[in-house]
Design goal:
Elements lengths: L13 E3 L9 E3 L6 H11 L27 E6 L23 E5 L6 E4 L1 H7 L22 H13 L4 H10 L21 E2 L6 H6 L11 E8 L2 H5 L17 E5 L6 E4 L1 H7 L16 H11 L12 E2 L28 E6 L2 H6 L15 E5 L6 E4 L1 H8 L16 H11 L27 E2 L44 H18 L9 H15 L5 H7 L6 H12 L39 E4 L8 E4 L13 H37 L3 H28 L3 H35 L6 H6 L9 H22 L26 E6 L5 E5 L3
Length: about 850
């Protein structure tokens, strides 16, 4: 489809013919032409003196057929969203406040440009042409303006116009149409040289241009010529950034391809806006940049905290000889063809001295092990790839098959064990088998190249031989060819840096849609299975964009397109893609198509049906159920009966297993409630000790009942002492009462008995009071030692009837005789 729109306009009416899909042809009567269209037609006819100066409504109907001039409008260029000076061009439509997003040019008026906004462009031109999106960069837009035809038309109009030169000169001097001379780039590129579209040509420029100059499109490119050094930035003659609103110092110098004398100094921030950041490494004027130089550029030439600087390869030494040489463009257009496959050869095996004295990190970005060997590419012999044993196993399928492919003739056992211990995380690494080979150890005197690349190896190569194992489906960074993974003839094939960059781009897209755990799949058999399962579950037609989004971008677009082509078009009937036309003559014989052996075992060939659309986004794919097993009607009857029988049998086995599980659960619960053998032994020992104490207490109690005479003798002694105590107490009380009466209360009986009187008496009351005071003091001291809060008492002391005769009570204080002459115990809590 052409990437432009052709609009044919007539003086009476407007016949708009659009070549892009999705816009129908329309005829607009002259009386219904919008005011905006009329104004634009008036402006287009102003500069043509010989052409009709009347507006659309001034053309007589009878002369419309004679004065119809076919006019074609082409999209000249896309305007950026913002400029360096902040000025945005307005829409050319009258009374329209919108901002111009595109420039259109007419075949009748090649000198004039029509700036239009999104709304007016949709109304006048039917929107953006097919294949062009509003956010496309200028270098992504294919400009289809035929400058030669425009020039011819301009010359034709100039012959009938005598005052054309005067009008053109006045238009050039008009400040509104005068072009800005600042060499600011039109739009940043996509990581390569910034590309700027041809500047806005004035009418005089078009007239002065020769036909040879207009034969091909003029594109201005801005090339990074110089990066300011530390002395240039910090010196007294430091150059300022040429952007009007910027006050930073210049970090780079760009020159134009059309005018090499035109120089543009820019800072790091303006470079990010105008040129989309730094170019690729092979486009830089230098091959290395020190950290001090980067810090100087960040501090003097940027206001941003997160500044992207050129990512030069890290070298552990001072030499820069092994840096990546220019000439290796990272792009899909430069990928090696299948005929010129890139091969990586094992050139060196690190010696023990190399690893001990000056180890080099493995070039795999996520690996931290020291390198065990060095590989070189036939495309870039100066580029070295350092690999540990684990990465070598993943990337190259291990060591070469033949000892002749090794750079040495022998490796000692100590050397092999040292490589395994230092350069691998596994202990079962396969090493070359040198049994019977001549002993020629690796020399330790070889020089060590300390270049450490930062590129992650890409997925498996595109060459597929003898099928692909399932383990290779979930692709991880691995530069080994698939043929080395499946037992075919193994070669040291390794993709180039271009494929590495492309793999990174695919991996980033998959992680942005599927999360950090997403891994891309480039194996066509596995990709076909993923595509078919997705569409079978979706049960609806889908275009390639929906399929790509449904798979979370884990299948890259080129691989997805190739898989859909294989699955949608039956390779055995590749010539029958569309329905036969009724207009075709008679029955053409269908040509026999030779069966391609590589599709003989492809179970997904023809599994999808394809409906052609106007473009790739409107073309639909859906599952061809007629090619499924049993014509898409499910499994056959006999297989269904067998499956049903197995289902009921499995269900019965499940019920029996559940019953066994329930019984085992009950037994487990009972066993868990019982003590273990160790707990039972410990508990038995404690119970035996307690039983022994009880037996001793019982024996002691039995001894008290053996001698009844001793019991009676003790009782009589207690009675005798009780009588003596009563007699002495009565005499003492009589004396105290008499003293109280004779002294008229000066001597108090109560105070004397309590121990506070004038007469000191060893009374029972005084002894009990002092004993209780001592007991309470002792208890409070114990509570403070145990940090027990005030007011909370410990376990209540046992009373006399609760205490055992064999064990004393801690709360016992003293004994006294009551009025009946019986012994009464006194406790602290009584």
């Amino acid at each position: 489809m052409p990437a432009h729109i052709q609009i044919t306009m007539a003086k009476k009416g407007i016949s708009k013919t659009v070549s892009s899909d999705g816009i129908e042809d329309s005829m607009i009567d002259g009386n219904n032409v919008s005011a905006e269209t009329k104004d634009r037609n008036e402006n287009l006819d102003e500069d043509n003196e010989n052409s009709s100066k009347a507006t659309v409504n001034e053309v007589p109907p009878e002369e419309a057929s004679e004065t119809v001039d076919e006019e074609t409008w082409d999209l000249a260029r896309i305007l950026p969203a913002s400029r360096d000076n902040g000025v945005v061009a307005p829409c050319s439509t009258e009374n329209c406040p919108g901002k111009a997003v595109a420039v259109w040019m007419s075949s009748l008026e090649p000198d004039e440009e029509w700036l239009t906004c999104e709304t007016c462009q949709a109304a006048d031109f039917g929107g953006w042409p097919e294949g062009i999106k509003p956010n496309d960069k200028p270098q992504d837009v294919v400009l289809t303006t035929n400058l030669a035809s425009i020039t011819d038309r301009s010359d034709e109009l100039t012959k009938n116009s005598e005052g054309k030169d005067t009008e053109d000169e006045q238009r050039v001097e008009d400040p509104e149409t005068k072009e800005s001379t600042a060499p600011s780039p039109f739009e940043a590129g996509d990581g390569s040289h910034p590309v700027k579209d041809t500047k806005t040509d004035t009418p005089t420029d078009l007239e002065a241009a020769s036909p040879d100059d207009n034969d091909e499109e003029t594109v201005e490119t801005w090339e990074l010529k110089r990066i300011m050094s530390i002395e240039d930035i910090t010196g007294s003659e430091a150059t300022k950034c040429m952007s009007e609103s910027c006050s930073l110092l210049a970090a780079c110098l760009y020159v134009s391809s059309l005018d090499p004398a035109s120089e543009w100094y820019t800072c790091v921030d303006c470079q990010e806006l105008d040129y989309d950041g730094w170019p690729e490494l092979n486009e830089l004027p230098i091959q290395a940049m020190s950290q001090k130089h980067k810090d100087a550029l960040k501090s003097h030439c940027s206001k941003s905290e997160n500044v992207n600087m050129p990512n030069f390869e890290i070298c552990t030494g001072n030499s820069m000889d092994d840096m990546l040489k220019p000439g290796m463009m990272l792009g899909v257009a430069h990928l090696p063809s299948p005929d010129g496959e890139e091969v990586w050869d094992l050139t060196k095996i690190m010696s023990i001295h190399d690893i001990k004295e000056c180890p080099v990190k493995c070039s795999t970005e996520t690996c931290t092990l020291p390198a065990a060997c060095i590989y070189k590419s036939n495309f870039a012999p100066s580029t070295k790839w350092y690999s540990c044993l684990d990465c070598q196993e993943n990337d190259y399928g291990g060591w070469p098959d033949h000892l002749s492919e090794l750079p040495v003739t022998y490796l000692t056992d100590d050397h092999q064990h040292f490589l395994i211990s230092q350069c691998s995380k596994r202990s079962d690494v396969d090493m070359p088998n040198f049994d019977g080979a001549a002993a020629s150890p690796v020399k330790d005197t070889e020089s060590i190249d300390v270049t450490n690349t930062l590129f992650t190896p890409p997925p498996n190569g595109s060459t597929v031989q003898n099928g692909i194992s399932i383990a290779m489906a979930n692709v991880t960074p691995s530069p080994a060819a698939e043929s080395t993974k499946v037992g075919a003839a193994k070669g040291n094939s390794r993709p180039s840096k271009q494929l590495i960059a492309l793999h990174r781009k695919w991996q980033e897209a998959a992680e942005s849609m599927g999360g950090p755990e997403a891994r891309i799949v480039v194996s066509k058999p596995m990709a076909k299975k993923l595509v078919f399962d997705l569409m079978y579950d979706a049960f609806r037609p889908m275009n390639i964009t929906d399929i790509h989004k449904g798979l979370k971008a884990i299948v890259p677009s080129p691989v997805l397109k190739a898989c859909l082509d294989d699955m949608a078009f039956d390779q055995y009937h590749a010539d029958v893609h569309f329905a036969e036309s009724d207009d075709e003559d008679g029955g053409k014989k269908e040509k026999a198509v030779k069966r391609d052996p590589k599709y003989a075992e492809d179970s997904y060939a023809g599994g999808l049906s394809f409906k052609v659309g106007r473009n790739s986004n409107t073309s639909l794919y859906y599952v061809d159920h007629s090619k499924l097993k049993n014509s898409g009607n499910g499994i056959p009857r006999d297989e269904r009966d067998e499956l049903l029988s197995l289902f009921h049998k499995t269900k019965a086995e499940e019920a029996a297993l559940k019953a066994q599980l329930l019984e085992a659960t009950k037994n487990t619960t009972q066993l868990l409630s019982e003590p273990t053998n160790e707990e039972a032994i410990a508990r038995l020992e404690s119970e035996e000790a307690a039983l022994t104490k009880l037996q001793e207490a019982v024996e002691a109690g039995r001894k008290l009942k053996v001698n009844e005479q001793q019991k009676d003798h003790t009782k009589r002694r207690i009675d005798s002492m009780t009588g003596q105590w009563r007699k002495r107490r009565r005499i003492c009380m009589d004396f105290l009462i008499a003293m109280e009466e004779n002294t008229e209360g000066i001597v108090s009986v109560k105070k004397c008995l309590g121990g506070d009187g004038q007469i000191e008496i060893d009374s029972d009351q005084a002894i009990v009071t002092s004993a209780m005071a001592f007991g309470n003091k002792k208890r409070s001291r114990t509570l403070l030692a145990k940090k027990v809060p005030v007011g909370s008492l410990t376990k209540k002391a046992k009373t006399s009837h609760e205490s055992s005769s064999l064990s004393p009570n801690e709360a016992f204080v003293a004994v006294t005789l009551n009025s009946q002459g019986l012994v009464e115990r006194i406790y602290l809590d009584s």
